């Protein structure tokens, strides 16, 4: 059983909130009493999630758009603070898989698209989250990297490049604000049961799972549990880490 957190009165932003890891984290935050600002490009799914959270007695706002756009990040932070009074936590999760092919077959357009969402999207949201958190003198941010931020796999150059980049952003930002009451960390999920995995060839997935010693795929709720822990006072001395949540993959 996952620990229960009481985040009553606190406010969080979750990007990529409409499905998968973001949706699980958004629901976990809301169930802990957090008011959530949900960001994703899928407005219909965002509406559904807001209805689900508010129908259960939680607090939620939504903003649809492209996370690589700096104005979206600025607006999300401003609206969260205007409505709820602060910004205490953030999970910068939005990401796409992009092309799955050898690097020599990737296109510039495909690379730029993956970079815009996976790396620039984290950078732009973290920038505006930190502007607010520095005013408050407190806050916790978790960026979603990946197992692909820790290792290389064939046919995934663009994706892995961006996820390695997220770890670099996380470490540098953590050092920027470590003395200001703000903690920045990253998580590195392994193979998780999410819609993103639907785009991977089943035989390739089976080969991948052979390297995940726990012997099964992870669940989005298991990633959400790690996110909430990193945002909680239970991890108050943890900052600048890239935490594998991968069923033992990198323990080889």
From TrEMBL:
Domain of life: Bacteria
Transmembrane intervals: none
Alphabetical UniProt keywords: Oxidoreductase
InterPro entries hit by this protein: NAD(P)-bd_dom_sf, SDR_fam
The UniProt record lists the keyword Transmembrane helix: no
Coiled coil regions in record: none
Family of the protein in this entry: Belongs to the short-chain dehydrogenases/reductases (SDR) family.
NCBIfam families reported in the protein's UniProt record: PRK07231.1 (NF005559)
Name of the protein this chain belongs to: SDR family NAD(P)-dependent oxidoreductase
């Amino acid at each position: 059983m996952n620990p229960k957190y009481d985040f009553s009165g606190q406010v969080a932003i979750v990007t990529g909130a409409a499905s998968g890891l973001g949706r699980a984290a958004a629901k976990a935050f809301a169930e802990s009493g957090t008011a959530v600002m949900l960001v994703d490009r899928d407005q219909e799914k965002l509406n559904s999630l807001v209805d689900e959270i508010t129908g259960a007695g939680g607090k939620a706002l939504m903003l649809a758009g492209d996370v690589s756009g700096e104005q979206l990040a600025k607006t999300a932070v401003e609206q969260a603070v205007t409505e709820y009074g602060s910004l205490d936590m953030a999970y910068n999760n939005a990401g796409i898989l992009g092309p799955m092919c050898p690097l020599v077959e990737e296109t510039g357009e495909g690379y730029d698209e993956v970079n815009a969402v996976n790396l620039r999207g984290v950078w732009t949201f973290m920038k505006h989250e930190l502007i607010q958190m520095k005013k408050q003198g407190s806050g916790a941010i978790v960026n979603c990297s990946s197992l692909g931020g820790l290792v290389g796999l064939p046919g995934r150059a663009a994706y892995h490049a961006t996820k390695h980049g997220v770890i670099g952003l996380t470490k540098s930002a953590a050092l920027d604000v470590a003395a200001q009451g703000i903690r920045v960390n990253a998580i590195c999920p392994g193979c998780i049961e999410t819609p993103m995995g639907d785009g991977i060839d089943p035989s390739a997935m089976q080969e991948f799972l052979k390297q995940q010693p726990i012997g099964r795929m992870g669940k989005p709720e298991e990633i959400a549990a790690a996110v909430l822990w990193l945002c909680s006072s239970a991890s108050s001395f943890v900052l600048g880490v890239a935490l594998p949540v991968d069923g033992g993959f990198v323990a080889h």
